[in-house]
Design a protein that fits this description.
Layout lengths: L18 H4 L4 E2 L3 E2 L6 H14 L6 H9 L8 H9 L10 H20 L4 H5 L21 H20 L17 H4 L8 H6 L19 H13 L4 H5 L1 H16 L14 H15 L1 H9 L8 H6 L8 H13 L3 H15 L1 H6 L2 H9 L6 H14 L1
Antiparallel strand pairs: 1-2
Helix pairs in contact: 3-16, 5-12, 10-12, 13-14, 13-17, 16-17, 17-20
Length: 389
């Protein structure tokens, strides 16, 4: 049995490899660690997933049950399971090929619509600027102007570019060129202006960038990152080639479920982020009154730490492989973001002794730089909390 693998019946059944070791070993599928020494338990678990996924109609409840305890990365199982659990792929296997082809073509259409600079390509080719009219031109202040929309989109692109460059700077995967670049965007010979050129020619005006968490928001890159990494390391080269498109649609579906967190006007509603942070504390109050009172006494509000935990699905609290393992469980749970609240509560309870002994400064440091890296222990505690409700 691999070190870190729980025995049969344990919560975390997918083998875990220390991140430092994982990046040092030979890798496959563009960076996915391949574990050579595989326990019989893990082989059996892979077979369970394969049995479920080979059926003409996927048994969703069985898939969720298996995925809740961790999804093996071998054979692209995690990539496929996430696409099903995030409602990108339907349960009927026969329709996968046609749906993927349609969605990937749709993504190409989105790119064409989003990266065309009105008239520039035509002008460069010596063609008349037929889109520049007396009614619509680059200086047109009308909100309905295509040019006005274009310039606003440029500012959003620049913000996205900055966020993307900050994503996982210490992981080589995110710093090197992809094996399958999008030629539609990168090829300077086509009729579209490249995104890179648009970004380079744009000056970000902070006062014109929405700050109300209803548009592009700092931190969304932290949610895209694990999705893209998972899909771009798929051993299936055909699926890996379309990792960008698949990530887009899975990200869209995921954001549809958590978008209320990003809408400031909903903060204090029952679907808003403030309510969810208070829910973490109310659960803690029910399960560990002493710890709850200690945090209240020190005036440590959930906004000081749980805001980031919940908004970014814990993606900034743990190493990438551990974030992916947590997401296996979140995506598998029927009420996945209710379970996230329990995970946050479990994280507090597991460091209760340190919190009870610490002062405000020490405790804030603990909560903003969480000290436990045993993800299985955290998830096991969260499951215990769930079972006790």
């Amino acid at each position: 049995m691999l070190a870190g693998t729980f025995p049969a019946g344990g919560f975390c059944r997918a083998p875990r490899v220390p991140w430092g070791a994982a990046v040092a070993v030979e890798t496959v599928a563009g960076g996915a660690p391949e574990v050579n020494a595989m326990s019989s338990l893990h082989r059996s678990r892979i077979a369970e997933f394969q049995d479920v996924l080979k059926e003409p109609s996927i048994a969703l409840e069985k898939l969720r049950e298996l995925s809740f305890s961790g999804i093996p990365c071998e054979g692209g199982l995690r990539c496929l399971c996430w696409k099903i659990l995030l409602n990108y792929l339907p349960l009927e296997r026969a329709s996968w090929t046609s749906i993927l082809a349609r969605q990937r073509e749709l993504y190409s259409q989105f790119l064409r619509e989003m990266i065309i600079q009105p008239g520039i390509a035509k002008a460069n080719m010596g063609v008349s600027r037929e889109d520049v009219t007396f009614e619509d031109h680059p200086l047109n202040p009308s909100p309905d102007s295509r040019w006005n929309t274009y310039f606003k989109d440029n500012e959003v692109l620049l913000q996205i570019d900055k966020d993307v460059r900050r994503l996982y700077p210490d992981i080589s995967f995110f710093q090197r060129a992809t094996e399958y670049p999008c030629l539609l965007i990168l090829d300077p010979q086509n009729e579209f202006e490249t995104l890179r050129k648009r970004v380079e020619q744009t000056t970000l005006k902070s006062q014109t960038v929405a700050r109300n968490r209803s548009g592009v928001t700092n931190g969304m890159n932290e949610i895209v990152g694990p999705l893209y990494y998972t899909f771009a390391t798929d051993p299936n080269s055909e699926w890996k080639e379309h990792a960008e498109a698949d990530t887009f649609f899975c990200f869209t579906n995921l954001m549809a479920e958590i978008r209320d967190n990003f809408i400031k006007s909903l903060d204090d509603s029952q679907c808003g982020i403030t309510y969810k942070m208070e829910k973490v504390y109310s659960t803690l109050k029910d399960k560990d009154m002493e710890l709850y009172l200690k945090l209240q006494e020190q005036n440590i509000k959930p906004q000081f730490f749980a805001f980031r935990w919940l908004m970014l699905l814990l993606s900034q609290e743990f190493l990438l492989p551990d974030v992916i393992r947590i997401w296996d469980t979140l995506f598998a749970d029927d009420n996945r973001f209710d379970f996230l609240l329990l995970v946050c509560c479990a994280m507090l309870i597991l460091i209760r002794e340190q919190l009870l002994e610490g002062d405000f400064t020490v405790n804030m440091r603990l909560l903003q730089d969480y000290p436990i890296n045993d993800i299985c222990q955290i998830l096991q505690k969260a499951k215990e909390l769930q079972d006790s409700l």
